[in-house]
Design goal:
The chain is of the alpha+beta class. 50% of the residues lie in helices and 14% in strands. The protein is built from 29 helices and 22 strands. The strands form 4 sheets. The protein has a 9-stranded mixed sheet. A hairpin with an 8-residue loop joins strand 8 and strand 9. The chain is flat, with a radius of gyration of 39 Å. The C terminus is likely disordered.
């Protein structure tokens, strides 16, 4: 009879989980958290990159993003302005229904992922050249008649609110008459009212065209694309026309004709065109749409889709847009930020991988006797490996799946693929760590009772060759990175730089670590107490697996140092850019820095809360510089003249760092501002001005007076004009003294109080605070997202570093407890036992701290040439042009604080272990035959 297989009474996996439920739950929690972080990272990056693209399109000026489709309008003789007689070219007509039908066809032709906002899109006929108003009653400030744009925008009734009159309804090309509407701003500027008739020239020289104003309207959503692409439709402009020496100013405005007025525009001198302005929307776009969006814009402006559009609008049609510039700016910002974020991702990923490997190593070490017994009883490596694989899989796979689910719920609008791969990698490493480590340790018979420490252990030739190979590859990668530079982001070598440098340091430090301990042990033998000698001896005999915790700590410290330096550099760059914009903590100016400050304003500002110092400055722009024979043709011709009070201004320059100088350099000539062309004023100049004037005295003629200056100092910047050239003199020596700028300093200037003080003196002066200017720089989702990732990376790195320290101590905890129990039987007190364990852990902690600081410093120096934090700091903020570069620099606090934290944490963990061991007593550890 066939024998029925006997079912196992105690299944392996269930039994193991019941034996150590706490360990199982802790392992599952570790995998869950790690999988959540791994899955959340790509989803977070996807989310802020997609939001950054949408934000860039939403914040860009409508005239930049709109798709401008246009074609010349046929003349009444059936020819375009570019066509010669006898050609058969055709172009669409001005019928409103035809224009609407063509717009619908154009919208359907748009390549994906382009989509159009129908409410903000417009079509119609408009003149491309200005036409002059012929009526003498129109405003003519300098004798120049106003100029008009004639347009027939679609859906005017949906985008306006009628204030008086009615919307235009009729236009008669044969009678050369039409109705029109104007906005309230246009009516006010040009003194128009309902019933006003404006005459413009006829292209054939006959009777002029007569346009009657039938309504005055207010725009609905004036900042939308409908009105903002051509802002003249809603707001008239006061333009300048140069004629001879004197500049003449005149008005430019728009007349809004009915849709049927397109035929009338053919009779004008404005060279009309048909146009379709399609306003794109970006709410549906994701970061992955950026390549397709670039291709769509290129195809539409000069590719196959342009040919399709010309089939609708005519062969002379064109498509123009600035959307490609918006996409290119987004691409540049995304690339710059991604290269910096990738460093954090690689660092934290490496630390997490090492911690998972250490967890598997801890489990394998704790179960070494059990697995050795199984091997001695005939257990095969494959059988043991499968059972261990089942143990870890039943915990790791559900935990990783739960972590992926939580990350998906926390960050819903992102791709699933990268998160799935990241969580799967965590699960795979967690599942394989224990089986692989156990199989490696038990591939052969183990000698019982062997001492595994750095003094007695002699690494095998295979391990030595493997370490040397890894070391050589890491060194080669770092050398290649240094030679190649960090500009090329085609691979991940730059991102892996902290891991490579930490790997090199870990391999070298683990080999060199016992040497100083051995040297320190010899003099320690002569000490009266035994604690110092024993602690050094124990520290030199730590486990040979100490390379993994050291690597984890080095990578964590390096990532924290790099991240802290990045965040510190971002903060410094924003502070610097804001200071370049204001010149001080607060800046009070009038129109174009030209209006004189009210009397008593400086004294009133000094008494404002938070203000510590005040400097008043006189600024005059456009001062002509004398011509010298040695000056090149491209030399500076004019410069701003800055008159200052030397004492207060020197303090401000020293405080801001913009061209500090001793106040004695601008000592007064003693003329009290009397007009004396022969007096020589000491002056400080920018490099360009100093090059123009040279070292000899030069005559200067300005509205502030006529005098001679001699350059006594050259500075690259000055607080009053941080970004411009300048000529700095003592204001007391100016003939016509009138301060125009007030610069206030103080760490806590209150904006409301300062504005109230200024408004009490005059409402024509504006107050700009450095803190408010700085706040405008954080306006991009990509900036905020990258900063959040770095903060999370620093926090995650700290958490994994804590786990690495705890796992390292837990691995040797039984051995430490046994040693402490034996020493207590020999007379060691509890206090001495605690000191022993604390001092034993101190050398390893110091090694990791010092090594982490050195590795972090080396990594920052290695990556600094290719890391520019301008885009991460300022992005598309108004002050982007104020800062040319923001290099990465070593932040001392980011290096020192994590290192000190590692030492403190290690000492605290060792003290807690010593306290717990002495509190439990020694009986359990000393029982004969009790296996650990």
């Amino acid at each position: 009879m066939p024998r029925t297989p006997v079912r196992a009474v105690a299944p392996w996996v269930r039994t193991r989980l019941r034996v150590a439920p706490g360990t199982a739950w802790a392992f599952a929690l570790l995998v869950l958290v790690t999988a959540f972080l791994a899955a959340a990272l790509p989803r977070t990056v996807d989310a802020y990159e997609s939001e950054g693209l949408r934000h860039g399109m939403a914040e860009a000026a409508p005239r930049t993003t709109v798709l401008e489709i246009a074609t010349p309008l046929l003349r009444t003789d059936g020819l375009t302005d570019e066509q010669a007689p006898g050609t058969d070219g055709q172009a669409p007509g001005t019928d409103p229904d035809d224009l609407a039908r063509q717009r619908a066809q154009l919208e359907r032709l748009l390549p994906a992922p382009l989509r159009v906002d129908p409410e903000e899109s417009v079509h119609g006929v408009r003149t491309t050249k200005w036409v002059a108003g012929l009526d003498p009653w129109l405003p003519q400030p300098y004798g120049v008649p106003p100029e008009f744009v004639l347009a027939t925008p679609s859906a005017l009734d949906e985008h306006t609110t009628v204030r008086s009159g009615r919307l235009p309804a009729t236009a008669d090309a044969a009678a050369l008459t039409s109705e029109a509407a104007v906005t309230a701003e246009t009516a006010k500027a040009l003194r128009l009212k309902v019933g006003s008739v404006i005459h413009v020239p006829n292209r054939y020289g006959s009777a002029p065209l007569a346009v009657t104003v039938t309504g005055i309207v207010e725009p609905v959503r004036p900042q939308g694309a409908y009105w903002s692409v051509e802002s003249l439709l809603r707001t008239p402009a006061y333009a300048m026309k140069r004629g001879g020496i004197e500049a003449k100013y005149f008005w430019q405005a728009a007349l809004l004709l009915p849709p049927e007025g397109g035929a009338l525009l053919q009779e004008s001198l404005g060279e009309p065109e048909l146009h379709w302005r399609l306003a794109p929307v970006g709410d549906h776009l994701t970061a992955q749409d950026e390549p397709r969006l670039s291709q769509a814009v290129a195809s539409l402006t000069g590719g196959p889709d342009l040919a399709k559009a010309r089939e609708v609008i005519g062969s002379s049609g064109s498509v123009t847009t600035g959307l490609d510039e918006v996409v290119a700016a987004y691409r540049g910002m995304r690339t710059a930020i991604a290269s910096v974020v990738a460093v954090a991702a690689f660092g934290i990923g490496a630390v997490a991988a090492v911690v998972l490997a250490m967890t598997g190593g801890l489990f394998a070490a704790r179960r070494a006797a059990e697995l050795a017994l199984l091997r001695s009883r005939g257990g095969s490596l494959a059988g043991i490996g499968v059972r261990l694989l089942g143990e870890t899989a039943v915990l790791a796979l559900p935990a990783a799946g739960l972590g992926l689910l939580l990350a998906t719920l926390a960050f819903p609008h992102a791709r699933l693929g990268p998160a799935l791969v990241a969580a799967g990698a965590v699960a795979l490493l967690a599942v394989l760590a224990l089986p692989l480590r156990a199989l490696f340790l038990h591939r052969g018979p183990l000698a019982h009772g062997g001492r595994e420490d750095l003094i007695a252990a002699r690494p095998s030739r295979r391990r030595t060759v493997a370490e040397l190979t890894v070391l050589a590859l890491a060194v080669g990668a770092v050398v290649a990175l240094r030679r190649r530079g960090t500009e090329d982001s085609g691979d991940h070598l730059v991102s892996a730089a902290p891991v490579l440098v930490a790997l090199i340091a870990a391999l070298v430090l683990v080999r060199l670590y016992p040497l100083p301990l051995r040297w320190a042990t010899r003099p320690a033998r002569g000490l009266r107490g035994a604690v110092g000698f024993l602690s050094l001896a124990r520290a030199g005999r730590s486990s040979v697996t100490g390379a993994l915790p050291l690597l984890a700590l080095l990578v964590a410290l390096t990532t924290a140092a790099f991240g802290g330096s990045v965040l510190a550099g971002v903060a410094d760059a924003r502070d610097r850019a804001a200071l370049l914009e204001t010149g001080a903590d607060a800046r009070v100016t009038g129109d174009a820095d030209a209006a004189p400050l009210p009397d008593g304003l400086a004294k009133a500002v000094r008494g404002t809360a938070g203000v510590q110092d005040v400097a008043t400055v006189q600024v005059e722009y456009g001062v002509a510089l004398p011509t010298t024979g040695t000056a090149p043709a491209t030399a500076l011709r004019t410069t701003p003249l800055v008159g200052v009070e030397p004492e207060s201004y020197a303090r401000l320059a020293a405080r801001t760092g913009f061209g500090p100088f001793p106040a004695e350099l601008l000592r007064s000539t003693g003329t009290d501002g009397n007009d004396d062309a022969w007096r020589v004023l000491p002056a400080i100049a920018s490099p360009a001005v100093a090059e123009r004037l040279g070292t000899e005295p030069r005559n200067i003629t300005a509205a502030a007076g006529s005098f001679t200056v001699r350059i006594v100092g050259v500075r690259s910047a000055t607080p009053a004009l941080p970004e411009q050239d300048f000529l700095l003199v003592n204001a007391a020596d100016l003939t016509h003294r009138a301060d125009t700028v007030l610069l206030a300093s103080g760490p806590s200037v209150e904006g409301d109080a300062l504005r109230a003080v200024v408004a009490a003196k005059s409402r024509d002066f504006a107050v700009v605070l450095r803190t408010e200017q700085r706040a405008t720089y954080v306006d991009s989702p990509m900036q905020a997202g990258a900063e959040r990732i770095y903060l999370a990376a620093i926090g995650a790195g700290a958490g994994f570093a804590v786990l690495a320290v705890l796992l390292s101590l837990l691995q040797s905890a039984p051995e430490r407890a046994l040693l402490l129990a034996r020493l207590r039987t020999m007379g060691l007190t509890r206090r001495q036992g605690r000191r022993l364990l604390g001092l034993e852990a101190l050398p390893q902690a110091l090694l990791a701290a010092v090594g982490g600081m050195l590795v972090g410093w080396a990594t920052i120096l290695l990556l600094a040439p290719g890391v520019d934090l301008v885009r991460l700091s300022l992005a598309a903020a108004p002050g982007l042009g104020a800062l040319d570069t923001a290099p990465l620099r070593v932040d001392v606090w980011s290096l020192a604080l994590p290192a000190v934290a590692v030492v403190a944490l290690t000492g605290l963990a060792a003290a807690l272990q010593a306290w717990w061991s002495t509190r439990r007593g020694s009986i359990r550890e000393l029982r004969a035959g009790d296996a650990r």
